[in-house]
Request: fold
Amino acid sequence: EAGVAQSPRYKIIEKRQSVAFWCNPISGHATLYWYQQILGQGPKLLIQFQNNGVVDDSQLPKDRFSAERLKGVDSTLKIQPAKLEDSAVYLCASSPMRGRDGYTFGSGTRLTVV
Amino acid sequence: DQQVKQNSPSLSVQEGRISILNCDYTNSMFDYFLWYKKYPAEGPTFLISISSIKDKNEDGRFTVFLNKSAKHLSLHIVPSQPGDSAVYFCAAKGNQGGKLIFGQGTELSVKP
Reply:
């Protein structure tokens, strides 16, 4: 089966600019996650979708970050405006359902804010 | 509040020897634990998991041990191979929802 696809792989923007990341999960996977991984730290959950509904966005900085998952398939994560501390790898993952299984991660988008 | 902690940022081991990676957690509601492996420029990949009803799970060269009373788990790799060199993340989740809480990671270097 095809893996989780993410684009772009790399992005460099200036602070206060906006940026968007795209994720296409594994076909049939109902649950989609966006994680932020800052250098030297473990991945931190930003938002979790079950189909096209939000299950958990408690750690999403909603003043600047937004995410949507239209039709319960692809998802986009947007940052507007970006800050220097947003420099990180943004990882998308999917799983068949809420429950016991581990996720499948995409390769991530490395964002550098200068 | 760091609920999952990996206190060793790096570990260096000789090829053929045992690698032991450690992880501590604070939340007693966690009941499922996973280890992920990450190569540079790739996403984490699932390696092995263990349910809280077990104290050991083995898969080939990889064994995970869970000590619930100490809230501690460890990953043993025997024998270690140069291809095992990567960052290893410990993760935990509770019985509601799929959210994984990750540790900071340990970078393993296996030297030939």
